[in-house]
Amino acid sequence: MSFLNKEICDGDNPDLTEERRTATFDTDRMAQVIYGSEKFAARRRQITKSISRIPALQDTKPLAFMTREEKITEACRELDVLSDHWEQLIYVNDEEEALHLHREVIGMEGHPFALHETMFIPTLVSQASDEQQEKWLGRARKREIIGCYAQTELGHGSNLRKLETTATYSPSTQEFILHTPTITALKWWPGALGKSSNYAIVMADLVIKNKSYGPHPFIVQLRDEKTHQPLPGITVGDIGPKMAFNGADNGFLGFDHFRIPRGNLLMRHNRVEPDGSYLKPPHAKIGYSSMVKVRSRMAMDQGLFMAQALVIAVRYSAVRRQGFLEDKSQEVKVLDYQTQQHRLFPSIARVYAFIFCGLETIQLYEKLILDVNKNGDTSGMADLHSLTSGLKSVVTHFTGQGIEQARMACGGHGYSMASYISEIYGVAVAGCTYEGENMVMLLQCARALVKAVELVEEGHPEKLSPMMAYLTKPSVTVDLTVGPEAYVKIFQLIAKKQAFKATEQLHKFMVAGDSRDVAWNKSAVELTKASRLHTRLYILKTFIRRVESITDISVKAALTDLLNLHLNYELLDVASYALADGIMSSTQMDFIKNQLYSSLEKIRPNAVSLMDSFQFSDLQLRSVLGRRDGHVYQNLFEWAKSSPLNQSEVLPSVTQYLKPMMEKSKL
Ligand SMILES: CCCCCCCC/C=C\CCCCCC(=O)SCCNC(=O)CCNC(=O)[C@H](O)C(C)(C)COP(=O)(O)OP(=O)(O)OC[C@H]1O[C@@H](n2cnc3c(N)ncnc32)[C@H](O)[C@@H]1OP(=O)(O)O
Ligand SMILES: Cc1cc2nc3c(=O)[nH]c(=O)nc-3n(C[C@H](O)[C@H](O)[C@H](O)COP(=O)(O)OP(=O)(O)OC[C@H]3O[C@@H](n4cnc5c(N)ncnc54)[C@H](O)[C@@H]3O)c2cc1C
Fold it and tell me: What is the homologous superfamily of the domain 290-460+484-610 according to CATH?
């Protein structure tokens, strides 16, 4: 049975066409599972199709040959074209559709609206009062103003309690005075701050009558709405080129006693009254909700980054022929090598797993904001914070590794910017740092774990949240042949042991006289290990849950093969813990390895279609190696010919330096 007739094109590379014919499932149906619903998967396709009909968005110059200024200009041109077609392309105010539109058209190198959509608007939604939303949210959604999220400073990013920018309340004028007291207090890093935004959410230490109340969000106009000139009292600019994201103007920002009205403190959850009295929020960390929002999206977004790299690597591996196996008359596709499969397929499994987690955490955040805004119920905050802290750290780390493996799997051509994998890598690994440096966030997750272990030790297991319930599971002997649940049990034992060991170490240092902070630091590596295992257990369980819920038999079968690969790969990856603690025997290890190798063989015929199912267009992929039609070589040559260096036969540097040097050498 061939499912993919609609996607097979006679003009495509025959090796790729052959791969598509061997698929055992329908890629449209798989896309429904990936994107969470039939409706959204279909909308994505529809949007992609509509974009392909807009000539001004098609024949764009390769970004690799552009300067930063050109990249920023090109992104702005594309945004302008999109703006003209916005209402025909997507449902207005649909965040997922807007993200898809931007990803598809502008790519990943950043653009002036990136933070506007992902943090500025969400902060207004979660932190602004109804009255404030009336004033700013509509304008922001209509893109009359462009905003960003200015929190990190030159001197502090992780430790928010030490942010130095102050917002001092003046009861006589009912204004806040924003001030940057030192060089280290300059806001530094915010995306789209440098040149594009005219508004910002500024996180500043709220000071009333000489008392500090910690970081609070303020909406601040930075630039004149007509001239775009910075307002008096504001210093703002671009921080310079970065490892990636060079189409974005990450910026710096300083205030010189800059006054804003009292009503610019976002006051949905806390208030400053005209006389300066302060009304506390229902939860001390409610002002951090925009960070939780982005973290809750990161499993999905990082999964999609890794998926892009893997589409490229898998398609290319199916058209790249090199070396022989049995048949000496034809070289094999490199995808047939077991090492290539082992390099790529576990990452394919992780992509699916991460995306399933993302679908869940995005919904959890939406529910949380509804609970908080409608009912003042903040009870879900701690759990979502610890879950998303661990998840963003684990997912970004493995995404970086997976993309780098994808690059290496493409051999020399993977290193060329024509593959686009280096850009995807640069963008993805920024996620290890932004929205909370990974170690810092793993340690946040560890705080919840240690508390849970302490509850068990104090005899209160009934107080554990469902995610921590495994900490009470007794040790058992497990027969791995019975299926996924057996793997979960072993993983639970490994994660539990590590959580108890790390907590025991923490307590030991404290009993020996160290303060909790010092003991914490002496146990930090063990604590981060516990957080990783805890998070990987969540990922594994989410993958199982999701696959179990699928109704399409052929899609479910293909994903069951991926799930089995994931279970065996993950368990093998943490086997040192299991062996050290006697949780697993070496015979079980051999069983896992054999299962892993046979999973690779099962997945092989579906590999291309598992990646085609993401339905990225060539416009979005921007990769010569990852082209849908597989015509790699002639297009690599065309790409190289379009390099600015090849626009003349003799470069001025040759005439100016090399020729005279060679002439001198002849004398
Ligand atoms: C939407 C994505 C679109 C996809 C497109 C992809 C491309 C996107 C392009 C660009 C996006 C880039 C965006 C990047 C934006 C940024 O980076 S914004 C800046 C982000 N900065 C951070 O994340 C800073 C990290 N630091 C912190 O979050 C905090 O300082 C801290 C959590 C480490 C500590 O906070 P602190 O106030 O000092 O808290 P403590 O006193 O230590 O903790 C007291 C208790 O509160 C708990 N807690 C902390 N935070 C939260 C929270 N958010 N919710 C609930 N609870 C929280 C903490 O765990 C403590 O609990 P216990 O006392 O019970 O232990
Ligand atoms: C591409 C990009 C986009 C960004 N966009 C924005 C934005 O839009 N808005 C914004 O406000 N910010 C933004 N940032 C800033 C980003 O959020 C911070 O860089 C990030 O939170 C890390 O903080 P830091 O730079 O202070 O790192 P540091 O905290 O200085 O980290 C340095 C090292 O110290 C370690 N460390 C720090 N504290 C601890 C601790 N308590 N325990 C153990 N180890 C610790 C870290 O693990 C790390 O190894 C962006 C950053 C990047 C790279």
Answer: Butyryl-CoA Dehydrogenase, subunit A, domain 3 (1.20.140.10)
499: closest CA among 457, 541, 462, 463? 457
What architecture does CATH give domain 146-281? Beta Barrel (2.40)
276: left (phi over 0), alpha (psi -120 to 50) or beta: left
Helices (H), 250-334: 289-319
At residue 614, what is the residue type? F
CA atoms of 336 and 344, how far apart (whole Å)? 12
pLDDT band at 540 (very low <50, low <70, confident <90, very high): very high
Substitution candidate for ligand 2 out of 111, 119, 189, 442 with most atoms within 8 A of CB: 189
Which contacts of 369-372 are long-range, i.e. CB under 8 A and separated by 24 or more positions? 369/125, 369/126, 369/289, 369/293, 372/126, 372/269, 372/282, 372/283, 372/286, 372/289
> Is 358 one of the annotated binding-site residues?
no
User: Measured between alpha carbons, how far is residue 531 from residues 444, 445, 663 in Å?
Assistant: 9, 6, 64
> Among candidates 394, 640, 429, 424, which has minimal Cα distance to 529?
394
CATH 1.10.3860.10 fits 28-111, yes or no: no
Domain residue extents for the chain = 28-111, 146-281, 290-460+484-610
Catalytic annotation on 435? yes
Fill in the amino acid letter for 254. G
Residue 661 pLDDT more than 60? Answer: yes
Q: DSSP character for 344? A: H
Ligand 2 binding pocket, CB closer than 6 Å: 115, 149-152, 156-158, 189-191, 245, 250, 430, 433-434, 436-437, 439-440, 443
ipTM over 0.95 threshold: yes
Residue 152 labeled ligand binder: yes
pLDDT at 60: 73
Mind listing the pLDDT tens digit for each residue in 283-306?
999 999 999 999 999 999 999 999
